[in-house]
C-alpha cells in the first residue's frame, strides 16, 4: 500500500510538471515579436554577398545593433525598414512579412509602424516644425492631432518652436525635431541610426535617456544602430555585426 501511494504521488508530480511545461510552451509560441528576420543576405552589384544574423526582438525590448564601419549596419537597417530588399530571407515587422507588400502598401505600412531617426533631420525646409509633423501624421493616413503634436514637442522642449523653420533651429533642436516626427504616429518600431556618434559623453547620455524615455511614452520598441561602444552597457539586448 505505501508503495502504491508513493507511485500515485510521483504520477501526480509528473502530471503537474508536464502541464506547467505545456503552458510555458504555449506562451512561448504566442510571443509577438516586433522584429523577426530569417537568413537575410544582401547583394551589392559586383560585390560579395553579405549575410546577417537572425534577429528576434520582442515588444518593449530596446535593442542595440553594434558594429564597426563597413560591417553592414546601414544595409541591415534599410532592410528592416523596408527601404531595401534582401537577396534572400525574410523580414517581419509586427508579424508582417515585408516581402508580401506591394510598394504602395509598404510605404503606408512603413509610415504607420516604423519610425526613423536618421543622422540628419531631413525636415522639409519650406514647412514649419508644426507643419512637418502634421505632414507625418497625414502621410500615415491618420487624422492630424495638433494637441498630440504639442504634447510630444513639450516633452522634447520644442513646444515654443512650432512656428520655426528648420533653418531657424539649432543642431540639437533639429535632432529633437526629427525624434518628434518619428514618434508622432506611435510606431511599433523606432529605428535610430548613429544618434550619438558625433556627441561627447555628457550629450550622449542625455540623448540616449531621451530616446529611451520617448520610446517608452510612445509604446515603441527602440532599435539603435551604431559603432559607439560607449552605450552598450545601457542595453541588455544586443547584436554585434563583424
Structure report:
Helix 4 packs parallel to helix 6 (171-183). By secondary structure, the protein is an alpha/beta fold. The protein has helices at 2-29, 73-80, 103-113, 129-139, 146-155, 171-183, 201-218, and strands at residues 33-42, 50-51, 56-58, 63-67, 88-93, 96-97, 114-117, 189-193, 221-226, 237-241. The chain folds into 2 domains: 1-30; 59-86 and 98-241, 3-Layer(aba) Sandwich (Rossmann fold). A hairpin with a 2-residue loop joins strand 5 and strand 6. The strands form 2 sheets. Strands 1, 2, 3, 5 and 6 form a 5-stranded antiparallel sheet that branches. It has a 5-stranded parallel sheet with strand order 7-8-9-4-10, with helices on both faces. The longest helix is centred in the N-terminal third of the chain and has 28 residues, at 2-29. It starts with a helix and ends with a strand.
Helix residue percentage: 40-55%
As residue ranges, the low-confidence spans are: 19-30
Percentage beta strand:
15-25%
Q: Report how far the terminal alpha carbons are from each other.
A: 64 Å
The main pleated sheet reads as: 5 strands, antiparallel
Which structural class should the secondary elements be placed in?
alpha/beta
CATH topology of the largest domain, what is it called?
Rossmann fold
